[in-house]
Amino acid sequence: MKINYQPLIIALGFSLTFAQCQIAIASDLSRSQIYAKSRKITVLIAGSNSRFGSGVIVKKEGNVYTVVTNTHVINYKNVKHEVVTYNNQRYPINLKNIKTIPGFDLASVQFLSQNNYETATLGDSSNIGIPIVFKDYMVYSAGFIRSLSSNKPTYNFLLGKVLENTSEQQYKPQFHDEGYDLSHTSQIRDGMSGGPILNIKGELVGINGRVIYRGKFKELYKSLGIPINTIKTHLLPDTPTITTSKALGCSKNIFVNVANVCITYPSTSSSLSSF
Fold first, then answer.
1. Cβ contact 111:56 at 8 Å
2. Are 242 and 197 in contact (CB under 8 A)?
């Protein structure tokens, strides 16, 4: 069964379109600059059960750092987790200081450090993938994957383009639930859940967490992320006083991921995995 997606088209005047493009070009960063920035803000979230995911440092208050990730990355009982920063420093995560948001695959964790770590610059995801001019909006994805040679986490950095942003759509395509409104072409792999999606200015515009496969051979169809505006609205305002809430478990037709091994394929030609 083919999944049909309703296109959202907004007509723009030429002068407005040209002005927006000029602004974007003026502040673009090079690929190497964005790579360097992403490496500093992206962390490995390692579990004592040998499973891992990724996260993004989004806030610093004194010596308290806040990291945004997916709920399914840290949704384990009796498992100790650590944040591992770019300089290979390891910091324990207290499970009692994890915040999750019901209905969204979003979580925040905190760690303490006297080191001065860079935090992500939060962008605006409202214009990504909506007007025609942004249909080929380029984004970078980062996170950790398991090395085939050493079987250890290794950093991965990818370029892709936005396919769709369904944040404002009342009727969403299949699998665009739990906040997953941003789809793009990057080849997201196991372990990259919670890792950043950055625009060409180096701003954080979302976090990754799912991929959709389709066809007989489960070919990658598209990757899904949660837009930064959703994260800012539902998760970040409360970061200074994080409280414990119940984590999301595996829901219908959803998870095959590195942090929570629940395998359920939908009865269609397309299937979805969370990493």
1. no
2. no
**At 107, is the secondary structure helix, strand, or coil?**
strand
CA 210 to chain centroid, in Å, comes to 8
Output DSSP code: residue 122: B
Per-residue confidence in pLDDT tens, the chain, 275 aa: 444 333 322 333 333 333 343 334 437 899 999 999 999 999 999 988 888 999 999 999 999 999 999 999 998 777 889 999 999 999 999 777 899 999 999 999 999 999 999 999 999 988 776 544 444 589 999 999 988 887 889 999 999 999 888 877 766 776 778 899 999 999 999 899 999 999 999 999 999 998 888 777 677 778 999 999 999 998 887 533 322 233 333 333 333 333 332 222 333 344 455 55
Q: End-to-end CA distance of the chain: give it in Å, rounded.
A: 24
Report how far apart, in Å, the C-alpha atoms of 74 and of each of 37, 149, 246 are: 24, 26, 12
CA 111 to CA 25: how far, in whole Å? 36
Q: Could you give the CA distance from residue 185 to residue 203 in angstroms, rounded to a whole number?
A: 18
Phi, psi of 4 (to 5 degrees): -100, 135
Q: What separation in angstroms does the CA of 185 have from each of 77, 117, 163, 214?
A: 33, 30, 7, 14
Which pTM was predicted? Answer: 0.76
Which domains are delineated in the chain? Answer: 121-228+250-274 (2.40.10.10)
